[in-house]
Amino acid sequence: MPSSPSRPPRLRVAAVGTGGIARGNHLAALHAHAGRAELVAAVDVDRGRLDAFREAAGALGMPDVAGYDDLGAMLERARPDLVLIGTPPSLHRAQTVAALQAGAWVLCEKPLCLSLAEYDAIAEAEKSSGAYASVVFQHRYGSGAVHARELIAAGALGAPLVAHCQTTWYRDTAYYEVPWRGRWDSEGGGPTMGHGIHQYDLLLHLLGDWTEVRAMAARLVHDVESEDVSTALVRFANGAVATVVNSVLSPDEVSRIRIDCADATVELTHLYGHRNEDWVYTPRPGLADEARVARWRTPAADLPSSHAAQLGALLDAYERGERPPGSGPDARRTVEFAAALYKAAFTGLPVKAGEIATGDPFHEAMHGNHPDWAPREQK
User: Which parts of the sequence belong to the Gfo/Idh/MocA-like oxidoreductase N-terminal domain (predicted)?
Assistant: First the structure.
């Protein structure tokens, strides 16, 4: 009897930051891919939080997770292949670079970094190490999003014309009592960086390169450094135009993307995650090709958007030795869009893709040292 092909060894995975996102989403993703990835270590400065994470991991069949309070010590002793980062945003760049320099791939919660300058430092660490850093944008990986992107890219819905991207959520005063929230140096911005980034990343994923942004931002309710609402007008390389709204002031919470193409409208409505049923395709009046319309509405599978879906795509790339999705220039495009939105909003001028380069204050920080928006201690 011929021998069966050997299974590739499981990746050694470490978690950095063991709070709610790691204990919930990251552990669930690792459990879903238990045959391909093994959690070997976790890092947190809070011992109680670390112990709770290790206990939760054990309950999911991951009992041998070594605990550390220092990232460097963990990287030296555990030698992970992949590091999952779920710490506050201000730590992401340094922790990502450290993991890359140790030869580990990285999957980091959004935002991957707080500025284009920080992103470029991560790109340099990738070049010198040969490892890759991806950012968690799990909404790209649900089957509904994969299907919609394939249809749009193939021209099956006709040319994209008009789009709307809406993240209208609600956060109360207590939410901003967490010290690192609402501050430029620790969160990088307001809902543009911390909330709406998931939806407009998906919009960019569906429509491709953007070419110009015009925007407005305001601080209407919360006593924070950054904005609590922003809006943008966007032009894409394919000619489509879009509106983007990012808000934490909206009692009726919803996340929505709508793209009107020449032959159909595709619309996604959800809050924090989507399934196939959340995507709706409406043919243009007079389109009578029922077989064509049926193909729009029937993805091959129903894979919810999730950390598990993205982790699966990253593991596929690792096994093939390829750059993973959501990294490199693809990830930089989303960071650049955020910087362009802030620059356009704070200066009142349109911003073109590629305009924010080294030496531009918005390359160094999302607030661009604008006198009305710079951190309070710098004014």
Answer: 11-135
Return the H-helix or E-strand segment holding 107: strand 105-108
Same domain, yes or no, for 148 and 102?
A: no
Same domain, 162 and 301: yes
> Residues 285-324: pLDDT tens digits?
999 888 898 889 878 789 999 999 999 999 999 999 999 9
pLDDT single digits (tens) 167-199: 999 999 999 999 999 999 999 999 999 999 999
Whether the CB-CB separation of 308 and 33 falls below 8 Å is answered with: yes
DSSP symbol at 362: H
Residue 37: which domain range? 11-138
- Total domains present in the chain: 2
Domain assignment of residue 317, yes or no: no
Close Cβ partners of 188 (under 8 Å, ≥ 6 residues apart): 89, 90, 111, 113, 114, 115, 194, 366
Model-level pTM greater than 0.90? Answer: yes
